[in-house]
UniProtKB/TrEMBL annotation:
Coiled coil: none annotated. This is Agmatine/peptidylarginine deiminase. The lineage of its organism: Bacteria, Pseudomonadati, Pseudomonadota, Gammaproteobacteria, Lysobacterales. InterPro entries: Peptidyl-Arg-deiminase_porph. Keywords: Hydrolase. Pfam families: PAD_porph.
Length: 344
């Protein structure tokens, strides 16, 4: 990678905290709030084993309720910090900050969040980074507003200048832009030397237009973990097989093939006739561990074994996420890691 002052860290680099937003009756979780609260409690319990959690709350009543629920679950509340900020929903991977290191400080990239191309109202979410910055959550940082729609779940980096993304998502957001133009914009804003595009891969029940964080993720500068499908009768088989072939053809910055770790495929999870996007690729890396979405399927154990092979120096911690996929996302989608030094 070329020497640059600005750098986009990989997710496995040291973190200050993980940022989430507590679900409440004014979010899309309202109809199944009890179920999803249990997932959030399990998630905060897992995060705080390894580092702090910063929890956005809509108001003081939501904070009091969340604090009581977490305290009753015997969570280490010294590692929990609440911040009041309005939000439409809780998908902070896409509405939270994309953080570049800038020497000893940070640049918070505040891209436009459009509710995944206008599918949902996102007026409050689009203001979240600015509000958190103004609230003093982040230290040694400057916010850069960028009038360009980009979600954090659409990109993944090795921390050394290589970005992985999908053409479907970026093309849906910017249909008039060429791949060359989008490559230049992403490389420039995110300080990348190269952008690797995937043309295949999708999940039923996904309304992000194929975010890469549900499909393929860097595990190291030379390793990629990806969601596979080995069942020829499954509707995902052709696309995920084609994506696997694309990944096998990719090369690292020094021209070597990537070490590939295919994740197993859970049995179809259907809710009111609609298949849900149960991806194991939607894991979260924290200090010393990988938090893995678990779906109550026999494939959970096999997914845990794959992640243990891909991340041999980290503990693999399953977090029950079946309730999350009802709203078309999973564990990585509701979290945003904050690099070490960003939070005071």
């Amino acid at each position: 990678m070329n020497e640059q002052v600005l750098r986009l860290p990989a997710e496995w680099e040291s973190q200050s905290a993980v940022l989430i937003a507590w679900p409440n009756a004014d979010t899309d979780w309202a109809d199944r709030l009890g179920e999803v609260e249990e997932t959030y409690i399990a998630l905060v319990a897992a995060i705080t084993r390894f580092q702090p959690a910063i929890i956005c709350v809509a108001d003081e009543d939501v904070e009091a309720y969340a604090r009581a629920r977490l305290s009753s679950a015997r969570i280490d509340m010294t590692r929990v910090r609440f911040v009041e900020a309005p939000y439409d929903d809780t998908w902070l991977r896409d509405s939270g900050p994309i953080t570049l290191r800038n020497g000893a400080g940070f640049r918070l990239l505040d891209f436009r969040f459009t509710g995944w191309g206008g599918k949902f109202d996102a007026s409050q979410d689009d203001l979240l980074v600015e509000r958190l910055h103004d609230a003093g959550i982040f230290v040694n940082s400057a916010r850069q507003s960028i009038d360009f729609a980009l979600e954090g779940g659409a990109i993944d980096t090795d921390g050394e200048g290589t970005l992985l993304t999908t053409w479907q998502c970026l093309h849906e957001r910017h249909p008039q832009a060429t791949r060359e133009a989008l490559t230049g914009k992403l490389a420039g804003w995110l300080q990348q030397d190269r952008v690797l595009w995937l043309d295949h891969g999708y999940l039923e029940g996904d309304d992000t237009d194929a975010h890469v964080d549900t499909l393929a993720r860097f595990a190291a500068r030379d390793a990629i973990v990806f969601q596979s499908c080995d069942d020829p009768d499954d509707s995902h088989y052709t696309e995920l097989q084609a994506m696997g072939a694309e990944l096998a053809a990719l090369r690292t910055g020094d021209g070597q093939p990537y070490r590939l770790f295919p994740l197993p495929w859970a049995k179809p999870i259907v809710d009111e006739g609609r298949r849900l996007a149960a991806s194991y690729a939607n894991f979260l890396i924290v200090n010393g561990a990988v938090l893995m979405p678990a779906y109550g399927d026999e494939a959970d154990a096999r997914a845990q074994a794959v992640l243990a092979a891909a991340f041999p120096d980290r503990e693999i911690v399953p977090v029950p996420c079946r309730s999350l996929i009802w709203q078309n996302g999973s564990l990585h989608c509701i979290t945003m890691q904050l690099p070490v030094g960003l939070v005071g």
